[in-house]
Amino acid sequence: MSTNTQTYDIKIDSLGAQGDGVGTLPDGRRAFVSGTLAGETVRARVQDEKPDGVFCAVVEVLEPAANRMAAPCPHYDRCGGCAIQHMDDASYSNFKMDAVRRALDQHGLEPETMDGPFISAPGTRRRATMAMYRSGQRVLIGFNERRSRSIVDLQTCLVLKPRLVALVPALRALGLTLLESGHGMDITMMSGDGDAVDLVFRPWKKTQNKHAQKNRQARNRKEPKLKQKQIDGPSLAILEALYDFANEHDIARIRWQDGFDKPDDLTPVADRAPFTVTLGGHMVRPSPGAFLQATEDGQAALTEVVLSGVGDARNIVDLYAGCGTFALALLRDKRHVTAVEGWRPAIDALSRAASELGGVLDTAHRDLVDDPLNAKELKDFDAVVIDPPRVGAKDQMREIANANVRTVVSVSCNPATFARDGAILKDAGFKLTHLRVVDQFLWSTHVELVGVFVNQNYVTPPRLNRG
Ligand SMILES: C[S@@+](CC[C@H](N)C(=O)[O-])C[C@H]1O[C@@H](n2cnc3c(N)ncnc32)[C@H](O)[C@@H]1O
What we know:
By secondary structure, this protein is α/β, with parallel strands linked by helices. It has eleven helices and 21 strands.
């Protein structure tokens, strides 16, 4: 049975974690309707049926909620980049705070104080990955449509830095040279000091093109049959086009990456100017496509809690240090900081910056999942800063819990793993003294947080007692 013309009038009871309104269909199944709010009645069309519920698109809001707001972006009805632009400011803040509170409650964590959300301003996000796809003479560039791999052709974006948005029309034109019809690629953009731009172009594999094709056919568009030839490395024509693009649009650095499975296999295309980022007052040259906190003001909000959290600690280890966002900010008052990171290009960038700092910053390349720092290694540090990827750092946290560490500042982009790992500290006698919620991904359902855990069982080692 075809379901995509079926409509229902649905009463929305609550908002789900992905920002969809949740209601119940007449047959008792759960319905998820994007762009709706609790308390509304909407007419919605079925888009997709999954075992966990039926996903629907709004056809009409029959009874709007009082906290409904007109979404500011013209792409909002389709673009998957944003999920919650249609609510007033208070509801938006509550959505982000509630997401964190729910995760904390699940693990019995209660911060003594909590602040936020600190919300990054529109037009400040400094990194993004867009998709680009060519069909005949048409090139689409932008983010994926909600629950789909189709691309919403981006005319504007209220979230990204204007410098990055301004490149989109020129990238679209460049797509005619870079792509054959039926092919696509991802473009990772990063903006650094003085609006310097770093671009990494990553052609899709054959299978990804097939997905795009299948999706477009499902959407019933009449397109010519697609050619499924794999792009193998940049041709001379592509290299020249990218180089000219760099000159014309003042791009600091361009790299070409062959394949998602080879993140370090980058072909240098253009190095017109140093691509630098200032972290903690120190200049770093991050490798192409490196992790950076998404916004500068969000980074400052996280760093503020990291600094106040470690207090007067003298010897600090920064785990999952990246290019040194926190390690470099911690370098003050003659402290000693050790930065540990698993991605070679990031720690190399930080080591280069550290070499100019006279021995106050040590760096180590180490996989913290396979080989977490053990309690014996941790005993030399009086504070730990830890900022793992979304999966968290369960094993590393167990080692920290067993060590005699006074303070742990835990930074996270995932409330669920933050709370799970935080509970390991709580069970070992740490108290969550402060928590800040930071929203660097404006109008999305993502949320970041930083918590300060203080060890109630800390024993001051004799060597720190000497004077
Ligand atoms: C959320 S980022 C934080 C980076 C840094 N703290 C910052 O704020 O810029 C997580 C970092 O963990 C690193 N990472 C991921 N898996 C790792 C592993 N198994 N061992 C060590 N580092 C890892 C990533 O390369 C990335 O730099």
